[in-house]
Design a protein that fits this description.
This protein is α/β, with parallel strands linked by helices. The protein has a single domain, classed as 3-Layer(aba) Sandwich (Rossmann fold). It is built from 12 helices and 13 strands. The strands form 4 sheets. It has a 7-stranded parallel sheet with strand order 5-4-3-6-11-12-13, with helices on both faces. Strands 1-2 form a two-stranded antiparallel sheet. Strands 7-8 form a two-stranded antiparallel sheet. The two termini are 23 Å apart. Nicotinamide-adenine-dinucleotide (NAD) binds next to α2, β4 and β11. The site of nicotinamide-adenine-dinucleotide (NAD) has 29 residues, from α2, β4 and β11.
Length: 396
Amino acid sequence: MIVEPKIRGFICTTAHPEGCAAHVASQIALVKGRGPIASGPKKVLVVGSSTGYGLSSRIAAAFGCGAATIGVFFEKPAEEKRTGTAGWYNSAAFEKEATAAGLYARSFNGDAFSNEMKREVIEAIKADLGQVDCVIYSLASPRRVHPDSGEVLKSVLKPIGQTYTNKNLNTTTKVVDSVTIEPANDDEIAQTTAVMGGEDWEMWIKALHEAGVLSPGVTTVAYSYIGPEVTWPIYKNGTIGRAKEDLERAQRALDEALAPLGGKAWVSVNKALVTQASSAIPVVPLYISLLYKIMKAKGSHEDTIEQMDRLFRDRLCNGQPQPDEAGRIRLDDWEMTPEVQSEIDELWAKVDTENLLSLADVEGYETSFLRLFGFGLAGVDYAAETDPNVRVPSLG
Ligand code: NAD
């Protein structure tokens, strides 16, 4: 099969196996190039490990800290006429590279929200690792089947309390238009919190704790975003922001629950980056395009792998987490500097369809988006036939 990108709105329905492998290899090379991370965790569970921040966390843990990793994700292998998903190919490539480097790597493909998945992972930890010393929680999902009630919960990206109108980039047509989003009702707020808030993180940690598979001094980290005022109505003060507040509630509860083990729960506020999850949020792609332009010019641009390498190297493992006043790790520190944000304010007011390509890094946005699906990687022959049927070794 010759695999080309097929973009539908904010998703790409194809993924390139060798391209995804090259993307994973480039992330591994970056971490290895920075040298080993001293005092890192050695047995790490990553929930949501196949793409975006979770994949980069797994890579930083394995290739920076030398950790054995268990990864949980929800991906699809190839079918007759369809390629597998990018996360499937990423996980296959990660496992191969980890095994070649002598690192244990095992993956689970299925619903992380379910009790069954938690049980399976606990059995694997007991059998293979005994305990884990770090749990990264990096799920981003539009829905969750609640494991107790069976209710199907859906997350929405809406403002709360008032209608929100702002500039928006149509990433297909490159037109800067305007988007108006009606406020969420109470049920939508509750459902989004149930999907993207802290309940499932707590359920994971409780299940792992009760099974005795968390080692003394265990660390767990979940990811959040705050961002600039221009996105607050749709992000920080919207339904997703409400869910992230619940994540912080869960962090405080987990800190208490883990105290007897000498453990610690963190929320890490990460930078806005192109991922499968963030490209679906209105207004955010335009913000990211402007941000990339500014941060690349300043030499402070990072992708998920630089962020996650910095999380382990300069926050979690060196005893200097540098928490903010609310106790959160801030990897969005460079994004949120007053210099960067005042430039954002200036450009945001000016940007329109005519000046878009000069003010914003639209090309960088597109390149990053395509790389998520394995397209545009150096050294990959995209004109050549490729076999979409790739095995994730530990999945058989
Ligand atoms: P992503 O879409 O790249 O990754 C989501 C991961 O969750 C994938 O591994 C996917 O397989 C997995 N997943 C989804 N539903 C699942 C299910 N039911 N069972 C098992 N696995 C499932 O997303 P991302 O952007 O890396 O987001 C990860 C976290 O980082 C989220 O909490 C997000 O809010 C946060 N974050 C993202 C950004 C950003 O700009 N992208 C910034 C700050 C924080």
